[in-house]
Every structure is written in C-alpha cells, then in structure tokens.
User: What shape does this take?
Amino acid sequence: MVYDGRDDEGVFFHDELKRKMDEYVHSVYNLTKVYPSHEIFGVTSQIRRSSLSVILNYIEGYARRRSSVYKNFLEISYASLKESSYLLDFSLEEKYIQDFEKYN
Assistant: This one.
C-alpha cells in the first residue's frame, strides 16, 4: 500500500504544508524584530501569536486523530492566517515594514 499522508481515521498530514507554515512563522518573527518598541505588547505580540497559531492549530488538529476535529482546527488555522495577513498589511500601512518579501 502506498502511503498518502492519511492516518487510520482519514486525517491528512502534509509535511510540505507544515514546512511552509514553519517558514511563515519564522519569517514573521524575523520581520517583527524591526517593529517599533512601543508596539511590543500591541501589533508585535498579536502578529507573532496569530502566525504561530497557524501551525500550532494544524498540528493540534492532526494530533486529535479525528477527521471532524481536524477540519475544525484547519478552520481555526486558516482564520489565524487571515488575521496575521491583515496585520502584515496593517504594518505596511503604518510603515513598520517596507516589504514583507525581503524577510522570507
């Protein structure tokens, strides 16, 4: 039998997706090192937490080993991605950063 990334419950785990999520959160952490010090408990903290939640919810959902629970955690992970994406746009508008791409 060929392994397709699915466990006994039909829950998928994609190493490539996990790798990309890991790269994303590290990029955000590196990016936020240049944020103004007055934002350490504001935007800096929030964007770090939301970007980290992307991968953490993916891993936690997979660890629960039930397809319906996994799907719920994927939705939470996606919502955290959208939150951190907005915060990146916000950071650009506030001129905390110039270009996200140079931090990847």
Remarks:
- Helices lie at 15-31, 43-63, 67-93.
- Residues 38-103 form one domain.
- Residues 54 and 81 are 6 Å apart (CA to CA).
- The chain has a mean pLDDT of 86.
